[in-house]
User: Fold this.
Amino acid sequence: MEHNRKLILTSLKKARGTLDKVIEMTENGAYCADIAHQINATLGLLRSGNRELMRDHLQCCGREKLGSPDTRIADAFIEELLQTWDVATRK
Assistant:
């Protein structure tokens, strides 16, 4: 879990740095395509961090909840995952 946490934090901190660069570029009137490129890089870093976070959540909480003898716990976890998926895949 600690290894995943380091990967997640690395992605999030890189995304924050890249977003700061996007803001600076926008304030300084940089070329639009260059700004868009940096925005896409930020989104990629956020997706990477989110993917690692979800992997950790599934390996830790998911195993426990899906293996619960109480089906309501497993059902609630599945619903949580579906809601998270819906938010992540909205355009």
User: Anything to note?
Assistant: Residues 13 and 70 are 38 Å apart (CA to CA). The longest helix spans residues 32-66.
